[in-house]
Design brief:
It comes from Sinorhizobium numidicum. There is one protein chain. The protein is α/β, with parallel strands linked by helices and 275 residues long. Helix content is 48%, strand content 20%. The protein is built from eleven helices and ten strands. It has an eight-stranded mixed β-barrel with strand order 1-2-4-5-6-7-8-9, surrounded by four helices. Helix 1 packs across helix 2. The model has no long low-confidence stretch (mean pLDDT 92). The chain binds ligand C2E and calcium ion (3 copies).
């Protein structure tokens, strides 16, 4: 291809245009996607390092688009947040996961991601309470995963909201720990039940010295604060050995399983300890 000049500009422009169109298209079709049953939840197991049993599963949203096939959440959730559609979609997710978990053995919990937009919505507490009671789920089996970006600041309002959710009997996990700005401040002001280390800190284990230092520090922090510690994105045997040696409670990663449709995850839970 020719470098530079008008041709390059035109191609770039065309690519930008196509991307913008795809974005617009997604915005429009997402409006009916929920009613048309195009969203589905996949579940990825969290495995106890002690027993190798599945302790819970994280629900991960997928959009089965009629023309585009399966769309990943990284592609459509930002758009759903922009339009506000994440609120009804998120309420549906909460209902689904509670129903799903109620079909699993009592010791298996379910984790669900909350978007900052959902968190700011005045009906969040009610949406969670309704989902739990409709499914008659023991609330202690529901874990809400919240990132630092959800909270943004340690405001009284945010802490109050976390407290209200906690009073429903659900568990609160700090997700993507270490990737935001205020993780440490938050751990001081709110007693999370669990800390989840983001997979960006696992990727270059066991060689990465900096990552290892961080992962080790978080494991220690969790232990001294009495919070469960989970590490996500474990793919290799060496990574598993490393996080095991650091004393994490649970592991989530491709080494045990990719996210699976509900029917397959039920089988995996029933099959007993993994590896
Ligand atoms: P997350 O909360 O950090 O979820 C973990 C992501 O890491 C998932 O990606 C999962 O498939 C992936 N993962 C887990 N283990 C491994 C591994 O060993 N290797 C690799 N390469 N990846 C691994 P996924 O499903 O694409 O979800 C991406 C993000 O989308 C999630 O990140 C979460 O922030 C968001 N998301 C997913 N479902 C929902 C939802 O229902 N509501 C909201 N608000 N956000 C959601
Ligand atoms: Ca998560
Ligand atoms: Ca996340
Ligand atoms: Ca993550």
């Amino acid at each position: 291809a020719k470098a530079g000049g008008r041709g390059t500009y035109r191609r770039f422009n065309a690519a930008m245009h196509a991307q913008l169109q795809a974005h617009q298209q997604m915005k429009l079709t997402m409006r009916d996607a929920l009613a048309r049953g195009q969203f589905e939840l996949h579940y990825q197991p969290l495995v106890s390092l002690q027993t190798r049993h599945v302790t819970g599963c994280e629900a991960l949203l997928r959009w089965r688009h009629p023309e585009r096939g399966m769309i990943a959440p990284s592609e459509f959730i930002p758009i759903a947040e922009e339009t506000g559609l994440i609120v009804p979609i998120g309420a549906w997710v909460l209902q689904q996961v509670c129903l799903q978990a109620s079909s699993w053995p009592e010791h298996v919990s379910v984790a669900v991601n909350l978007s900052p937009v959902q968190f700011k919505h005045p009906k969040l507490v009610k949406a969670v309470a309704d989902a739990i009671s409709a499914a008659r789920l023991n609330p202690a089996r529901l874990q809400l995963e919240i990132t630092e970006s959800v909270l943004l600041d340690e405001s009284e309002h945010n802490l109050e909201l976390l407290q209200q959710l906690r009073e429903l009997g659900v568990k609160i996990a700090m997700d993507d720990f270490g990737t935001g700005y205020s993780s440490l401040g938050y751990l001081r002001s709110f007693p999370f039940d669990k800390i989840k280390v983001d997979r960006t800190f696992v990727r270059d284990l066991p060689e990465g010295k900096e990552s290892l230092a961080i992962v080790r520090a978080v494991a220690g922090l969790g232990q001294s604060l009495g919070m469960m510690t989970t590490v996500e994105g474990v793919e290799t045997e060496d990574q598993l050995k490393t996080v095991n040696a650091e004393g994490f409670d649970e592991v989530q990663g491709y080494i045990f399983s990719r996210p699976l449709p509900a029917s397959e995850i039920s089988k995996l839970i029933a099959d007993g300890p993994l590896r």
